[in-house]
Amino acid sequence: MEPKTKKLLNVKVFAQSSPNDNLLLVQALKKRGHIVAATGMGIHDPKTLREADVSLAMGVGGTAAAKENSDFIILDDNFATIVKVGLLYAWLKWRTWAVAVYRMHTKMMSKR
User: What is the extent of the structural domain holding 67?
Assistant: First the structure.
């Protein structure tokens, strides 16, 4: 692993990072088995957005290049919306798991 990649993995918060650093970070995290989400709004973000497992672009202030290369477009340009989507995803994931367990349990009980 490159020295720069090692340094990137030890940083907790990134602000005003270059597009190349963003891309390097996404690639390093994916190599380590992480699921990576990235946000972007500029003309330099498409490579990072394509590389990430989940990508979000800003709908109002974002460029067409960022929107075209993202999985989701945040229509209100509010990062709080991303948090809400994350919470909704976690709830849906838990709910799906609960339904699957319930169905397996009822199926096993009906075979008795």
Answer: 1-77
DSSP bridge partners of 88 = none
Question: Does the model's pTM come out above 0.90?
Answer: no
Are residue 70 and residue 86 in the same domain, yes or no?
A: no
- Residues with Cβ within 8 Å of residue 72, at least 6 apart in sequence: 54, 55, 56, 57, 85
Token output for 73: 């477009």
Asked if residue 6 lies in contact with residue 28, where contact means CB atoms within 8 angstroms, the answer is no
pLDDT digits (tens, 9 = 90+) for 27-84: 999 998 998 889 888 999 999 999 999 898 988 888 999 999 998 888 888 888 888 8
Q: How far apart are CA 93 and CA 112, in angstroms?
A: 29
Same domain assignment for residues 60 and 8: yes
CA–CA dist 17, 12 (Å, integer): 13
Beta-ladder partners of 54:
37
